[in-house]
What does this fold into?
Amino acid sequence: MKTPQPPGFADITLNGGTGRIRFERYLNTSLADAWSAVTQPERVARWFAPITVDGQEWITYWDDGREYAKGEIRQCEPQRLLELTWHASDDTKPLAETLLRVTLEEDDAGVLLTLEHKDLQAADFSQYAPGWHAYLDRLAEGDPDLDWSQRYHQLRSQYEPLLPAA
It folds into this structure.
């Protein structure tokens, strides 16, 4: 089941108890700069969160230093594709492996960034849809000072009526 969304909102697809969210954002930059923004830890921290990478393993942290999520890089095609597993560290239920995929495609308007988070439980949509939306707003607008928490709560209330029932 695919749920229609307003422009800029996540494209949400649910099949049974799991599904995916998908965002598209145009970045007014070069392909090399966009790749750097989504792969270099110091750049990722500007719009998302602190992250460390050791070989194929990565970890991201809350602002207070606690681990937030971790996983393994599955595919990396420079300036085109980054795919990794995602395990949220603070889930109270057993950690489910989800897949995060970021693709970049350059055209005359800039760089199209597509972010897909797959294999999410239906109950996770209310957290991940507004969360990724707020992070991508920071990236696309180039404003690391955009108040993520305020934007997240604003978006969460807008997503709630649009999300499939958990």
Q: What stands out?
A: Residues 75 and 83 are 5 Å apart (CA to CA). The radius of gyration is 15 Å. The helical segments are 31-39, 41-47, 125-141, 148-159. The domain at 2-162 is CATH 3.30.530.20 (Alpha-D-Glucose-1,6-Bisphosphate; Chain A, domain 4).
